[in-house]
Write a structure and sequence with these properties.
It is a single chain. By secondary structure, the protein is α/β, with parallel strands linked by helices. Helix content is 33%, strand content 22%. The longest helix is centred in the middle third of the chain and has 18 residues. The C terminus is likely disordered.
Length: 341
């Protein structure tokens, strides 16, 4: 096993919310991210999936220092990043970059492509003006765009081309880790495939580590090596890609995958669709026990009121297993296979 490039342990991000106090503070706390742990190695892609509002984008913004973590650990090559000031974050921004969801809002419409791609090197003092222009041209070539277009503005490009520019900007400082926050959700399906293939190629070419956030499980299955499933600020299951898609163990993961349409009409008609009842609990007042308990179709199989009283921890199913889940359903392999039926 190689050493982890990015290691996240018990990451939490809470926001003040709720009623205002006499002194202008807030009485409540919104638990956007509430104890997320994972690790990434060079050349590896971890897919992060879950419903809207589960905390995926908050994880991304916290990892790149756009928001300060409430608690927990973020280690990049063994160096602790959580709690660093903006000034001390600066050297690490070269090593961990982000691709944003919206290719229209993430690029400054008043800047040319040359300025957009050269700005990271300018901020970090890595290149002179002429060198920055040459850098911009090389970056456009890397992402499959014409280097002669460096003097154009973002509005002169299509959505897919803008996202390629966003990817080029993320590569400008030669990072080791890319945080991809739903990078294809705003694009047409045919363009999505091109961008995914480009990201796959760049990962192999530069040995990049990806945290890939998405709603489209088909995209996640294509690009990811392993997958983590989030629900209400916590990871409820994590496993190698093929194992998770072929045999999901957590009831929430099974419900998510049951909503993905199958290309075979006969298989689609024959399979069971799991429809969850109720709404996602509020992160302002999450349930005292398992966050998924109010909607779980299998909660009656756990003896007593354990799911209501205790919060399950993300644990490996066996000492040598790479699969982890946070659930009180019986962990023996026989019981697990019964749950999959």
């Amino acid at each position: 096993m190689s050493a982890a490039l990015l290691e996240v342990t018990n990451l939490k991000k809470h926001f003040p919310a709720g009623e205002t106090t006499v002194l202008g503070g807030r009485k409540g706390r919104l638990r956007a991210v509430d104890g997320v742990s994972f690790s990434l190695e060079a050349g590896q892609c971890l897919g992060l999936v879950g419903e809207s509002g589960c905390g995926k984008s908050t994880v991304a913004r916290t990892l790149v220092g756009l928001q300060r973590a409430t608690s927990g650990s973020i280690k990049l090559d063994g160096q602790e990043l959580a709690g660093l000031s903006q000034r001390h974050w600066l050297p690490y921004r070269r090593r961990i970059q982000m691709i944003f969801q919206d290719p229209y809002a993430s690029l400054d419409p008043r800047q040319t492509v040359a300025s957009i791609l050269g700005e990271p090197a300018k901020i970090h003092g890595l290149a002179k003006p002429r060198e920055r222009k040459l850098l911009a041209m090389r970056l456009l070539e890397v992402v499959g765009l014409n280097p002669r277009h460096i003097n154009r503005y973002p509005h002169e490009f299509s959505g897919g081309q803008r996202q390629r520019i966003g990817i080029a900007r993320a590569l400008a400082l030669e990072p080791q880790v890319l945080i991809c926050d739903e990078p294809v959700s705003a694009l047409d399906v045919s363009i999505q495939a091109q961008i995914i293939n480009l990201l796959d190629e760049l990962k192999e070419r530069f040995s990049l580590a990806y945290l890939f956030i998405a709603h489209d499980l088909a995209v996640v299955r294509h690009i990811s090596d392993s997958v983590a499933v989030m629900y209400l600020g916590k990871v409820v299951e994590q496993a190698p890609r093929d194992e998770l898609f072929e045999a999901p163990l957590h009831p929430y993961t099974r419900a998510l995958l049951s909503a993905v349409p199958l290309p075979d009409p006969e298989q689609e008609r024959a399979r069971e669709r799991i429809v969850l009842s109720g709404d996602v609990p509020s992160p302002l007042s999450p349930p005292p026990g398992c966050a998924f308990e109010p909607r779980c179709p299998r909660r009656a199989e756990v003896p007593g009121d354990r799911c209501k009283r205790e919060s399950p921890q993300l644990e490996a199913l066996a000492p040598s297993s790479s699969r982890r889940r946070a659930c009180f359903l019986e962990n023996s392999w026989g019981k697990i296979q019964d749950c999959q039926k």
